[in-house]
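Why this split exists: single-chain examples teach little about how molecules sit against one another. For that reason, every record in the complexes split bundles all components of an assembly together and asks for one structure covering all of them. Below is a record exactly as it appears in the raw files.
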Amino acid sequence: MSQVNRLSGGRVDRGTTLSFAFDGKLYQGHPGDTLASALLANGVRLMGRSFKYHRPRGPLSAGSEEPNALVELRSGARREPNTRATVAEVFEGLVATSQNRWPSLAVDALSVNDRLSSFLTAGFYYKTFMWPKAFWEKLYEPAIRRAAGLGRLSGEADPDVYDKGFLHCDLLVIGAGPAGLAAALTAGRAGARVIVADEDFLPGGRLNAETITLDDAPARDWVAATVSELASLPNVRLMTRTTVYGAFDHGIFGALERVSDHLAVPKPGTPRQILWRLYAKRSLLCAGATERPIAFENNDRPGIMLAGALRAYANRWAVAAARDVAVFTNNDDGHRTARDLAAAGVHVTAVIDSRTDAPEIAGLPLFRGAVVTGTSGRLGLKSITVRNADGRTQEIACGALGVSGGWNPNLQLTCHHRGRPRWDETIAAFVPDGAPPGLRVAGAAAGIFSTHGALTGGAEGARAALADLGIPATLPDLPRAEDAPFRIAPLWQVKGKGRAWLDQQNDVTVKDVTLAHQENFRSVEHLKRYTTLGMATDQGKTANVPAIAVMAELTGKPIEQVGTTIYRPPYTPVAIGALAGRSRGADFRPRRLTPSHHWAQEQGAVFVEVGNWMRAQWFPRPGESHWRQSVDREVLATRQAVGICDVTTLGKIDVQGTDAAAFLDRLYCNGMAKLAIGRVRYGLMLREDGMVKDDGTVARLTENHFVVTTTTANAIAVFRHMEFCRQCLWPALDVQLISTTDAWAQFSVAGPKSRELLQRVIDPACDISNEAFPYMACGAVTVCGGLRARLFRISFSGELAYEIAVPARYGDGLIRALMAAGQDLGVTPYGTETLGVLRIEKGHPAGNELNGQTTAANLGLGKMVSATKDAIGITLSRREGMNRPDDLRLVGLKPLSPADTIVNGAHLMTGGSPVDAAHDQGWVTSSCHSPHVGGSIGLGFLKRGDRRTGEIIHVVNPLAGTDIRAQVVSPCFIDPEGVRLRG
Amino acid sequence: MRYSGFRIIREALTGHKGWGPAWRDPAPRPAYDYVIVGGGGHGLATAYYLAKTYAKARIAVLEKGWIGSGNAGRNTTIIRSNYLLDGNEPFYELSMQLWEGLEQEVNYNAMVSQRGILNLCHSDGQRDAYRRRGNAMRLNGVDAELLDRDQVRAMAPFLNFDDARFPIKGGLLQRRAGTARHDAVVWGYARGADRLGVDIIQNCEVTGMRIEGGRIHGLDTTRGFIGAGKVGVAVAGNSSRVMALAGMRLPIESHVLQAFVSEGLKPLIPGVITFGAGHFYVSQSDKGGLVFGGDIDGYNSYAQRGNLPVVEDVCEGGMALMPMIGRARLLRMWGGIMDMSMDGSPIIDRTDIDGLYFNGGWCYGGFKATTGSGLCFAHLLATDSPHPTAAAMRFDRFQKGLMIDEKGVGNQPNLH
Amino acid sequence: MLIPHPLLGLRDAQEFTYLGDAALIDRPDGLAADAAGRFFDYGYLRDNPAGEHRELWFHEQGDRSWLVVTRNITTHEIVRVELARDVALARGRGR
């Protein structure tokens, strides 16, 4: 028979029956059920195993504080380990599997740990497993790792989509219980922009779990009316299934909306979850309170749960955890559980109240001054042992026990800025003591436990928050509600010989806390770290305060002096997929495409990631099976005829103003002030610490107009640096900057036939003959019949070469025009590999040399650093440590044997010296097969390299076990006199 | 009392009544020969090695909160010696070797676990840099292997090889690297130092330094004046605050670094893996949580907490690299105060004040250095000369232009 | 964090790039006789106070203003925000 423990009433939709499976067995539930409520309805109390001792466990709670009832929800790639059955909504076809047990939940081999518990006390592993030394990685640790952990991830990529969103509001109300709804109503009617977020799928908070009345009607009527009015207000957004998980700086909150977790799979086009960033001018925490248990021997059996949870299961979900139940309490709220259960038709066998002055409960057996000292029932509670006030003990049969040790305000968010709460004796709980700026607290979260107090606190909190913002608000007519005082006589533990659990998931018992105390782990943080208290998936929501109280008893200090651990985000765990959103896989970062990208794709180019850019790496042609074939061809074609490469990715910064020349003169370590109009100069930029920051070209288009280029990698950083210099260092200079990297498509046209090719594209009116437009000339031209363009005669390859720029939208057209015009010249597109070979052959430094650890002198450019002017970096570049006699210098390297290959990252050693760090002479920065040289060549930094030309050195690569000999040569392998580029 | 499996059995059978305090809580004495300021891993290790190796002397460690409450208790527990530069690598290898013998040395299981660190590369340039670094490690006698894509795939098949924005091209592997249980390192050194007679004084904040005639004589603290022959400061993120008591300005800024742990999961990830195309690194603790982190938030902070942009950035890196972790949940996040130095490397040096020594500037890499830092600082305190492996970690390197800049980003701390 | 931009109002700190201590505005004269020592101090030494800190933020994904933000770096409270250019001019920087 199904749903043996289902009662009448409740907030589940009995009109619909849902089937679901737990550990392979089929059950039935209803919409509105959680997995835990549905399993309890079906008479299932055993839902999990604890972390360390593998103790059989059922749900402790009916909410997100659940330590025990954790399951693997769903199957395949959607498997979600460690999912709380107490908040997972039942849907048709739900599949859940118990975890951290083998071979089955009822028969778990590792429950042997429970029998060995006296050996496995807190921190036992710190004291052993040390001998023999090698056994840790080989034996002990693998065994521990296999045994540890909770659920299993699928190992497959998460198939669902996660979105991110941003919302702004005047008032964020966190929690939609009585306080939150009253607050939202107050602020909503005042016209403020309001967001109300609640982790539950049903607004109403604790009102859903109670039988109390508002204005003599069921509380649900007021909730329904209020929710309906809020829904009608366009300025209010009520978000259910939305957990505000963290309070960050300046009123920014993180929230997670579980859009589709109550469905088998997300509907097409909808995400599984949305990560919201909420920007709130003011916020009101109405997150309620969480009940805490009392520690007594074997207080962790399936069927023992928080009294308020037992009541919630009966009232909201119409479920009796068992037919015979008992209640153990130290406060009046436990009595409410007993009354409600009895009213729901459940047999209440005993109400055990540790207070000798506990109030009477009509018609129910009350044991005043009594405590529960033990329990029985391995896989589910069978009976409890009660010690009466007179010391006599008796056994009472029951299948469920509701325990109430009092309630803890859910004040976590008030402490997310590292604030500490205050101990309130009257409710025996921590209450907020300050909060992040703009955050107020109302209702049970503030330690106000009556319904009346929650309603008025919420409304007044909202009014006060809006008053800060200058928005007038009036308090709504709130319904009449109970306003009973909360009476409690603290009881944290029932002392006994056996184990009494504090942190149920991590199996931390009173004995562990006692041992921690004995071993001087007395600070709360030491206690936590030594025993693992509160470090489980529930973050100790039910465990921490009782454990702190036990430590307080041991040290003889008041609880507030023992203190609390720090509450950190997230309030409840958040899926990593949600925090990542759509920035994953191929969409991890945006792709920047060059203007010739689509054209290059048509040519079959192979692309490579260069930062966020995608650049053509080489252009394979039919018949070429190895990249080297393509690259060698591209190199030779460029050196013999003409090649074209998209160099748009180089940073381009437009510099204008009457002080532009003076400004650039201070930015580059070499002189820029006297650069002639229509000329380009190589510029070396230092960081203020004297190291090379970047290099590029500076072109003077007119008296007051320059265009400078940067390396692709540093385009953004150099522009930022230039703006810093402009705004912060020399704010009165007349100079303006703008980055035009994406505005201009730029192509390198290189090779002996480059001029001839360009002359076919550049309008005839523009004379680009060698005389009119010599090496290092620049200027405005027009192409293709009037399109404005810029031409720079600069060469990275050592060939006669130009860079031509057109507005970005014409980049595609220009590459097609150039390719068409140069067919007969043998025009060849080339990619970044060929670009690299050409510059290595020419000995030009690039990223591998400009790695931020290099001085101008290292590059052989020491003379470029002006000795007479002040520019960024010059002063600190003169420090002695950067100018030592044995400093590194850029050299060329050629293997002695043509069969050998020089690889980047190999180190350089003097022949005959030991091969070790003490004798390290430098390393290879760049290398390639040079079609021009006809073999492997390299560039590298070598100590005193400028004085070692001709020396034979060893190029060692211990990682690969190679050691070859190479000759130190000039870094310029081609045309050292520069004839070609001036041709 | 010596810890051992035998001892555990004996105690288990007799109700665990025999365990004494792991360390005492002595009242401060009026004066000590050596006072170490900072009861983190570095400070406690310093006291331990000072007491054991260098000086049979009266030694105290002063801690403003509880020991291990700073970065020692809030890091991602990685140990490694895969550095590039001569000024660093021998020191980190010394540290690594000390890790390898730590547990037997202090009789405390710090769970030093050499499951390897794999630094992934995603471009030719990155691979070149790793080859240079790996070779530098090998030339220093340290283990290193350069893996190609297939080797990485064989080792970590769960990484994103099929749908990556920045494809994995290979990786630099140090097999001897791994993790250690951070708190246990603190407690192990504390217990070891305590057994050698060191006074560990908690809840004792230094409020002033008594300096006369260019020499330090002692410290004003919240528990009164404590005289000192020599004072060693090892306070990480609070370096600037403490050294300001001596009138010093440091080449250090304090920044926040966040770190994260997921819910416990059955074993997924063998060692430590770092993503080379984003800010993400991860390992899995013995308890089952994925321990991961990324970049510092990037602004000066003493708040020990960070903000969402970096949280999201780190998780984006995680999902880019390991799309299987999407349904794992982030359980806790925390922030530490990083003593970010001007070249990304630490300082272990004397100061211009006689008797005052400084140890700091560890950036976000101090945990792995705990062992070596303790040994080298103890050596410096006792002998007044730098330990050979830490000789480059000097204050004056910035004046002289002898920076130890592994990343090559210069004098901007938040870029290191 | 949210930074109240003096021209644009509240902006998410994510739009900005951080540099560091606003003392970086006070760049010494590289041609002065004591330039080496002053540049060492300028380039390397920081007050790094656990309280109010004047620091430079660049509105990189915004209007490209450099701002001087006065922020308590223990609480992250922002006390004042100015255009760095105005601060620089007020501190005597010019051409």
